[in-house]
Design goal:
By secondary structure, the protein is mostly helical. It contains 6 helices and 2 strands, in the order H-H-E-H-E-H-H-H. Strands 1-2 form a two-stranded parallel ribbon. Helix 2 packs across helix 3. The radius of gyration is 17 Å and the shape is globular.
Length: 145
């Protein structure tokens, strides 16, 4: 979804698309050295914007980036000129039934429960998220294994 939208937005906007730590082409520090929370990811993106001296911006929020973008907007709403949301859930009801089981893991992250979700991060699962519903040969391979 976002890969097709970014070039269209770039016609009229200066587009910055930072990778989140552990996503895209960014490094993935161990969980012992980096706490993977939306709060920490938000701090990282806020630091990115500060380093580039970006004072006002439109937000494009997508999937896991939505909680980060919305945190930025809540903290400094005067900086946000507008929001484009694609698949950016902001309410618990929108998560749907499949997340009820995952919430058990969030509340009690045992190795046994973690093992149930390993297939969600398997290369074929990730590849399917990018390619399902797309015409063959139209999606670049840079975003999936």
């Amino acid at each position: 979804m976002f890969r097709s939208l970014m070039p269209l937005l770039a016609r009229d906007f200066h587009v910055l698309a930072p990778d989140l730590i552990g996503f895209g082409n960014s490094a993935a520090p161990s969980r012992e050295s980096f706490e993977y929370t939306f709060e920490n990811l938000t701090k990282n993106v806020a630091g990115f914007l500060a380093a580039l001296k970006v004072d006002q911006y439109f937000l494009h929020v997508f999937d896991y980036g939505a909680p980060i973008g919305f945190r930025l907007a809540m903290r400094q709403p005067e900086r946000v000129l507008g929001i484009v949301s694609q698949n950016g859930n902001i309410y618990q009801e929108g998560l749907g039934p499949k997340w009820a089981e995952r919430a058990k893991y969030w509340a009690n992250p045992t190795p046994e429960l973690r093992a149930q979700y390993e297939s969600a991060f398997a290369p074929e699962t990730i590849k399917g998220q990018y390619l399902t519903g797309e015409k063959p040969g139209t999606v670049g391979p840079d975003g999936f294994p």
